[in-house]
Amino acid sequence: MLDQFKAYINRYNLIAEGENVILALSGGIDSMVLADLLLKSKVEFVAAHCNFHLRGEESDGDEKFVREFARKNGIQCFAKHFETEKYAVKNGISVEMAARELRYAWFEELRQQLGYDKIAVAHHADDQAETFFINLLRGAGLRGLKGMLPQNGVIIRPLLWASREQIRQYAVENQIVWREDHTNAESVYLRNKIRNQLLPVFDELQPEARQGLYKSLEHLASENELYRELLNEKLAQIVVQEGETQSFPTLNSRFSTLNFQLLFEWLRQFGFNADQCRFIYEAIGTGIGNHYYSPTHRLVIGRNKLQLSEIKEDGNEEVQVGLGEKELFSPLHLKFAQFVKFADFTIDKSRKVAQLDFDKLKFPLTLRHWRHGDRFHPLGMKGSKLLSDFFVDQKFTEQQKSSVWLLTSSDGDIVWVVGWRIDDRFKVTNETKNIFVCQLVG
Question: 318-441: what fold?
């Protein structure tokens, strides 16, 4: 296995001579085998361990185990503690996604701090298979179905060629000690369900079914690379730069499937999602003058072309909101409606939903970016607060500040910091008769 490991690194030039590596070391079997192979390959590396505090004493035990391994082998070890569940709730994402975001952000921060070249993670072929099915269930295209790459920027995956069984066999033969994560056997998360329930059935379909899947994933990766090259060539022929604006020609009221795909590939790089692109496609020819927004860009439908421009940071970008069962494209897919309050109405506490007292609103409502000096009354507070202070309290990044949207009434009052907090003055109370609902979809 050591020879295969070295050959794979050389094949994809994952670690060049003299490069320094940060190893993501969890203490599990995969990362411990990767550590052993790196040591035997004479690769210079330091260990980085994430304590997500998701398994109580077991999480602390993992950290202690990794630190002791590093000490015995003369490896510098860095460990970081995270409040993962709080981060997940705050950002409205799964615990699994929260852990991913936290660890990769820290790995990159540590890499820059140390001046290192690569970050090695212990993904293997079975992880690749699981990722394929996860993305398949999410409706992914070629980019998602191709799976992970041996190298993605500074992230390298030197074990991507090896199966879970090969890794376990190597660990046993080389007397490698590791920590067992009992949650891997629980079918709580989607990945675990695929690992513990779907793949065993997949293996029963025919001999070496999984090996066939690995080969298919390699083909998809190669085909995706070719697709990207041809796509870029085609877009370069179609998209026209006009000063600070890009334009995409629309000579027909409806695109062919091929042209829709080109439209989608062009817009996705500017933050537009698939649903937005579909609605833009449907509006061509009939929705002249319509505006669509991503967190960073605005797209306008013209008579013979689509015009794309970057949203300036002066906060002057605005779009009006109408009434009824309509949809609006701001940072995300936004739907809104109005109805009479019914007897058993309950408040939806999701940050993606704003339930407001319709009769307190002054229309038309407007969506805009924040401006210095903006104030609002956060839900639960009696007084007002500077929006900039609210951002500090919520630990907004600069990117979040620049991309957040505000729903405002016609007199300028902030009604909703979209996706975060409504204004207390417009909340639903016992006296509310009519309700206006805004919902972020996706």
Answer: Phenylalanyl-tRNA Synthetase; Chain B, domain 3 (3.50.40)
